[in-house]
């Protein structure tokens, strides 16, 4: 299977090069040239199977033989043995036809672990086989950095630089990055927003000199392997609820659109999805896009759900590319214009195609707090603010039929202040992270300047 760039000017590559490259050299995002398909019988067969086995099947469909099936199965079993729940992504019923998919039982208590744990093992396997070392540069709105540090810390073939917006993530999110003691990890508090961090990462990838000097790679959801790994839990949750005999809807709290786009990927692979509700907080660029057809960047507003405080959702480029029938020139022109002017009018045909699957809804801070309180009162379930955004959006959404799975993306203990303020209950960290607050932190502070951070990355990599 070959992978193409959404902007059309990069050479086609295989799965291994797409994973290790991260972002395509022309600034586009890799997608498979054709979508692999599962039959209805294969999807039904996922019900009740160990999570690692389903992951090996789904990811293997994208690797297409570039990684030996036995090696991939072993990596998946090792990756998902780090989760504290034997189901990896268990389902909890909240109401008739409404379920939570708990995505937070991994090492950093967030859904990013589901993809990052397998990604780290893929990197180990691939780089070790090639005798290479790489430097991973990632921007985080809160959870990606912690998951990346947890997955890659101490690994001999990889160095990690994690950028986070200073003062705009929770203390627990920050400490999952900054308390790492391994010498292959560096954390940087950037004086700016997540969008600033993300723009710096993209600038670094487009600096050919830096890219070659440090063998740069990325593990944000710009990396297609992240999307492939996240598609797995759409299959496992849907199969557990009766797919493919009935369609399933999903409500997804969304910032960078990777998690929701993974649902689109599962749909293209044959999963019968009724609807994907993209739920946002006040940073509602995605919700507005799916309701109006205009993708317009606004000012970033700090909220109690900081992992979604984003006004430039990288993975939307992949969906746009699909919506315009893979016209790479159109996609490159649109997203170059978006970078400069901050707005795209989605072509009518593409918008109609998006609306066949996606809807958008946003939740205010009051809506989010009410959803946390009502969920606790009605079900006894404590949820984090991001999950609450999706629950709030779902309560007002129209046209979602059949069972609905709400993606619960983080453990409530990652946001203790927000949960305590809304619910009057302070969630405790699980046993493995109980001493997090007492661990010393280690990080640097830098301005939101691409050249400054590129120099830092080069020095860290070479040092």
Overview of this protein structure:
There is one protein chain. By secondary structure, this protein is α/β, with parallel strands linked by helices. It has a domain at 91-109 and 224-423: Rossmann fold (3-Layer(aba) Sandwich). Helix content is 44%, strand content 16%. It is built from 19 helices and 15 strands. The chain has helices at 15-21, 40-44, 51-63, 69-80, 112-130, 144-152, 171-178, 194-205, 208-214, 224-240, 258-268, 285-292, 316-323, 328-341, 348-355, 365-379, 385-396, 416-423, 450-462, and strands at 3-5, 30-32, 91-95, 98-102, 134-139, 158-165, 185-191, 216-217, 248-253, 273-280, 294-296, 343-345, 358-362, 404-408, 444-447. It has a six-stranded mixed beta sheet with strand order 3-4-14-9-10-13, with helices on both faces. Strand 3 and strand 4 form a beta hairpin. Helix 10 (224-240) packs across helix 11 (258-268) and helix 16 crosses helix 17 (385-396).
